[in-house]
Design goal:
Helix 5 crosses helix 7. The protein has 245 residues and is an alpha/beta fold. It has a 4-stranded parallel β-sheet, sandwiched between helices. Helix content is 36%, strand content 14%. The protein has a single domain, classed as Rossmann fold. It binds zinc ion (ZN) (2 copies). One zinc ion (ZN) binds next to helix 3.
């Protein structure tokens, strides 16, 4: 349940917010920490957004990384991007959001997504969060991707569909799995949900949002569940990604 603004202001007087990145009082993710975001080093793979300066670099002068120029790249997503590398204050902020239940951190992080989308990506018609499986969502009490996507969409005035996708089976954590194992782990994990209809999505430019992406296999599997509805495009955006994957 969302606190009213008034109740939140009263709480803020009693318990001033502290920055999830550095602990300073006054903001849930302070300006100094936001200034420490490190974007993936350019040039980026035009498709998956991996830094071509990283170990995944293929032939020189290619616009695609090794995975995307071969058979192991994204299948449904036409473009994937992350705002920053998964390190420093922004990693702390995501950790606070996901594992310490600090939902308000989704506000500045959602704003970062909105700004990135506006400045670095093509316009979209609808924003959809990557769903959690219902058992995980019950455990956590909320879906961080939903909070991020809702804030980003609201900020930009873009329609937001929370029920377009469902996670139809629980999956193991992706941490520690190889790229191939990750793809297998999330294959067919998603299905179109109540709002995932051709009437809602055919011909639309869809943006899927998650908190963190590594190889992009989760976002790509989510996109694959919507691809049969003939959207105009399917792109993905996350707050962070690891420097090397
Ligand atoms: Zn800070
Ligand atoms: Zn790529």
């Amino acid at each position: 349940m969302m606190l009213s603004d008034l109740a939140q202001s009263a709480l803020d007087l009693l318990f001033p917010p502290r920055c999830a990145g550095c602990g300073a009082a006054g903001a849930v993710f302070c300006a100094a920490c936001q200034g420490k975001l490190v974007p993936p080093a350019e040039p980026l793979c035009q498709r998956c957004g991996r830094s071509l300066a990283s170990s995944a670099t293929p032939q020189r002068h290619s616009l695609l990384c090794l995975a995307c120029s071969g058979a192991h790249g994204l299948t449904a997503l036409t473009q994937l991007r992350a705002v920053a590398l998964h390190e420093g204050p922004v990693r702390e902020a995501i950790h606070a959001l996901k594992y310490q239940g600090k939902r308000r951190v989704a506000v500045p992080l959602g704003d970062l997504l909105a700004r990135y989308l506006q400045q670095q990506m093509a316009a979209v018609d609808v924003i959809i969060p990557v769903p959690l499986h219902s058992s995980r969502q019950r455990e956590r009490g909320f879906n961080q991707a939903e909070l991020l996507a809702r804030r980003c969409a609201g900020r930009l005035g873009v329609p937001y569909l929370a029920q377009a996708l469902v996670r139809q089976r629980a999956t193991a954590q992706q941490v520690g799995l190889s790229g191939q194992e990750r793809r297998a782990n999330v294959a067919n994990a998603f299905a179109a949900g109540r709002q995932g209809t051709a009437a809602q999505l055919a011909g639309k430019r869809i943006l899927l949002i998650d908190d963190v992406t590594t190889t992009g296999s989760t976002l790509d599997a989510a996109a694959a569940a919507l691809a049969p509805l003939s959207p105009a495009s399917l792109s993905g955006l996350a707050v962070t990604r690891p420097a090397f994957d």
